Amino acid sequence: MTRKRVQKAADELGYAASPSASRLATGRTRTVAVVVPLLSKWFFAEVIAAAGRVLSGEGYDVLLAEVSTPRLRSEFFASPRLHGRSDGALVVALQLTGEELAALESQGQSVALVGSERPGAASVQVQDRDGGRAAVRHLLNLGHERIAFLGIREAPGSPLGGVPPAERLLGYRDALLEAGAPSDPSLELGVENTVEDGAAGMASLLTRVQPPTAVFAASDELAFGALSALRHAGLEVPRDFSVVGYDNHELSGAVGLTTMDHGVAEQGRLAAEALIGALSGEPARTSRIEARLVVRGSTAPPRRLRAGAR
Amino acid sequence: MTRKRVQKAADELGYAASPSASRLATGRTRTVAVVVPLLSKWFFAEVIAAAGRVLSGEGYDVLLAEVSTPRLRSEFFASPRLHGRSDGALVVALQLTGEELAALESQGQSVALVGSERPGAASVQVQDRDGGRAAVRHLLNLGHERIAFLGIREAPGSPLGGVPPAERLLGYRDALLEAGAPSDPSLELGVENTVEDGAAGMASLLTRVQPPTAVFAASDELAFGALSALRHAGLEVPRDFSVVGYDNHELSGAVGLTTMDHGVAEQGRLAAEALIGALSGEPARTSRIEARLVVRGSTAPPRRLRAGAR
DNA sequence: CTGAAAGCGCTTACAG
DNA sequence: CTGAAAGCGCTTACAG
């Protein structure tokens, strides 16, 4: 109460403590850096937005650090860029090496990771393998037998360093194995995580001598590309072909994409909370998120089955 | 050269000047705040990403400020939140009141605006009226006569405060007037800028006694919604209906949307440069960007004409 | 419990 | 031209 009134009086008088002075005196910045490989992708923006809300709710400033190329990445970790600027770093998607993590810690940063894991560091991760399995089971349950996997291969210029969604491929294989479905390496494809490459990848999968009747795409962006390629190939979804994505992208509803929701905003929130915990000296917290199937209009029984049913 | 070698030596020794100390001594933070109504929309993320690259290239830290509700907005401007934290603010889309601008300036901020204009402040704007006119002319040239406008109405909870894309509506009317096409207020609709509302708006436009054959949507998100509504209504685009969007959203290529490209990244870049200029005492710089038509697959002559042509 | 003083790590004006 | 000193505006340990 008193606190609030003082704050209000201060605001009215236009008084504000000098952050630089108090930072210098205390050695704490009450600032957190958010480190992402790319800002303009929906996933990262959504994580940052959610994390930022809890962070600023707790009185932290949030500093933006985009490391979009391997070059920027090595420069970022080689120089003490965060030293004295933030107390902690929330690192999204980048698979940190031991040295990179050590570099952050030597700059006095507490660290929270989203989408990767490191001994001793707080992190939040998605049960991607389970998610992949659930996606493919959905297709198997509909009666599909030839199911392709359209995965994310890292671009040469990507700073990610590690292939987080590799787990999604494992889940795909798990589901096939469980069902006793024959696994066919020619149906597994890895492309860059863009709509364009998703389309090209889908087009290529359609040229197999025995083409698939469904695809599990490791991201919604790839799935959007796949949908576009299928349309161009004259195939109608889901009548002629089924597609499952992964993300529950804000636009996946608009195109009626069946997908896996892995709680993107939730990832940001949990990571921010874990980081705040770490900043107050709490031992590293690890959270796991389960992905859940969202059925929309891009999946249906394969043509053969439905024809038979009539 | 020497400078570079000193930098390198410093990096190797792990030495880094204390930002707090130098900020306290100089009174300059070498930090810029980016103020956006929403982080997780593609447009804002893209503007921030582009601005952030030029800003950090010039050695500025970038601080994130999301003011996503009217409440947060008034709190943000009522308290000296940026005082001593940043030297300048890059304000995206928010239509600042005179007091809000004054509040920023009293906190020692240089200001650059994107998507709005204020006497004395640097800004970058899009020639939205021209852009709207060009979009509608494209439809008129194809032979459409009943062209609807699906515009952005501000949500009650929106912090934007002003309707920037109102210019797009004026451009729409200009084009109709030029062509001597009858203007019909029942074909002008304003909805919230979401895919869902775009779909609902399109559905509603289709119920007019004399329905349109084409729509100009004031954003690509609205256009995505429109495409989805048209599909649900059993209409095929562009055979039965034409759609033009506005943004050149990263996913508009995937759905084959004809749209207006207003150089979103360029807006961010120019604003950052204008802000850097303002920070070094240069007089307020104003840039204007022209939107340009990108023809994809969502527009074609109206059915009547094509049938007649055969 | 209150209040004056030292110190945080820089920058810069000034004395030598 | 070089180097010691004051000052930026806080926090905090300490003297009274």
From TrEMBL, chains A, B:
InterPro entries per record: HTH_LacI (IPR000843), LacI/GalR-like_sensor (IPR046335), Lambda_DNA-bd_dom_sf (IPR010982), Peripla_BP_I (IPR028082)
GO molecular function, one term: transcription cis-regulatory region binding
Gene3D superfamilies linked to this entry: 3.40.50.2300, lambda repressor-like DNA-binding domains
Residues of the HTH lacI-type domain: 1-26
Entries under PROSITE patterns matching the protein: HTH_LACI_2 (PS50932)
Annotated SUPFAM superfamilies: Periplasmic binding protein-like I
Annotated keywords: DNA-binding, Transcription, Transcription regulation
Origin superkingdom: Bacteria
Pfam family of the protein (one): Peripla_BP_3
Keyword Transcription appears in the UniProt entry: yes
Transcription regulation found in the keyword field: yes
UniProt-recorded name of the protein: LacI family transcriptional regulator
Taxonomic lineage of the native organism: Bacteria, Bacillati, Actinomycetota, Actinomycetes, Micrococcales
